[in-house]
Amino acid sequence: MKVSFTLSMPNRGSWNGGWSGSERVFAIVKDFAPTKAPEEGSHYYDFGDGWGASVLVRHIDAKTARVLKKKSAGFCGYDWMVDSIVWYGKIMNNAQKKDHLESISKAKGS
Q1: pTM of the full predicted structure?
Q2: How many folded domains does the chain comprise?
Q3: Could you read off the pLDDT of 69-78 as tens digits, one per residue?
Q4: Torsion of CA 103, 51, 74, 55, to 10 degrees
């Protein structure tokens, strides 16, 4: 199953409220076994400085995957967001991941 991850910046803390990438497509396409594919939906991440990113997850066909790959301008260095969605089901920074893993470890040790 092909899954697309599309990045946007709905909240922008820039001086003019704009984002230089707003006119481009930022997408990653990955292949998953149907039972391992992340759920479709939108994931939001607040950077805490007025900026916020959104990653839209969609299950797509091969034709759409080819088009997205061709149009994509990369992922602006935010590939870690996709990895976080795949591994944890939501976007988490390193501190949040650490807290999450520690809580799982404590729960298993109880």
Answers
A1: 0.87
A2: 1
A3: 999 999 999 9
A4: 50
